[in-house]
Fold this protein.
Amino acid sequence: MRQTNAEGAPVGIARFMALVAACLTMVAQLHAQETPLGKLSGRVQVAGVIVKPPPLPVFKNRAYCGRVVANETMQVGANGGLANTIITLHALGAPKQIQPKTITLDNRACAFVPHAQIALLGGELVLKNSDPILHTVHARIGGETLFNVGLPHWRRVTERLDRPGLMRINCDVLHTWMSAVIMVTTTPFFAVSGPSGEFAIDELPPGEYRVEAWHEKLGAKSARVVIGAGQPAAIDFVYAAAARS
Ligand SMILES: [Cu+2]
């Protein structure tokens, strides 16, 4: 009588299938080793005399928010490092398909957190409010409203990011100082510069890319970069402080 396993398949066939699966795994691993991924890092900086914008006055909910809040539209750290600059890499060859991730926009201490974000088209945006006071999230691309959501502390709302472009966000309950930006993009390779202007984008397929930097006050810059297999590349962006509007 022929031996069978738990599913009733002959043991010989099961062993053969396991061998095939092991071979396929080895081939996939070898392929992955053949094409190591690259990385791009760099720093965004403002050169020249930097005039930090003054804090923004608060007209409502002063008991909770205080009389002023920080102006996050121009956050300059040590040595002119510029935070909240959105960096995107656009492959000049075939783009890689990556599943969009969910991002979150919180209302916390009378500000949108984080102030600047980037997300892949088709992803989801979760809106929440950590404050005990009412906020709204009013999102526009150009002059067009995409959504305007009232957000008491207990409420969570999920919006689908199905329009590419730069989304500007405000709070409509007389919180004139609140603003945020979310760039919805079609490239899966992106970053937002940190407090010192630093950024890094990992797992880049080798090839040539157009790199774009965008800051809400200082505008756009563009460059080209070649990412080598398994090699780190670096690029810095320097904005002139005089260009500030
Ligand atoms: Cu608000």
